[in-house]
Amino acid sequence: MQGKFKIPQKKPQFLKGKPIFAFNYYVDDDKEYSFRCINNCKDFWTLFRNLKHMSTLTWDEIQKSRQFHAHEIDWNKKKLPRPIKKLEKNPEIGDLPLFQFKAFDESRIVGLFNYDCVFEIIMIDKTHRIFPA
User: Fold this and answer.
1) Could you give the CA distance from residue 85 to residue 90 in angstroms, rounded to a whole number?
2) Which residues contact 119 (CB under 8 A, 6 or more apart)?
3) What is the pLDDT along the chain (133 residues), one digit of tens a residue?
4) Which of 1, 31, 48, 61 could form a disulfide linkage to 57, CB 3.0–4.6 angstroms apart?
5) For residue 107, what is the enclosing H or E element?
């Protein structure tokens, strides 16, 4: 028998914490999706200024802020880049949700939260083509 009341869903642990970034799955050999696509100092400066600002907030605050456009990405999306599709087959991380947030201008950082609630940066989507919605 179904109850009348909804059982509140527990928030994922990572939402309570402030960002911790790691690069264990970072794609550094892809010209289009690595940091090599950033071709001026101003964009690098803006990226790191924004990461510094994000580190003062919790992920819950980041996700609720329109400034960062932070949200999950569906692994099943047809046009995910090959480096991400390859990661999906990795048993260590293939079941973890993909996530993106605005880095600067229209650029997005794409990654996932590992089991320790650390955000693993996978790539940068400078033209915001991976998940534009």
Assistant:
1) 9
2) 14, 19, 20, 21, 22, 99, 111, 112, 113
3) 444 444 444 456 667 788 889 999 898 888 888 888 888 888 889 989 999 999 999 988 998 999 999 988 877 776 788 888 787 778 777 678 889 999 888 889 999 888 787 899 999 988 888 777 6
4) 61
5) strand 107-113
Q: Across-strand partners of 110? A: 100, 123
Amino acid at 96: L
Strands 21-22 and 107-113: unpaired
How is residue 18 written in tokens?
A: 């402030």
CA atoms within a 13 Å half-sphere pointing along the CA-CB vector of 79: 7
Q: Token digits for 8?
A: 């509140």
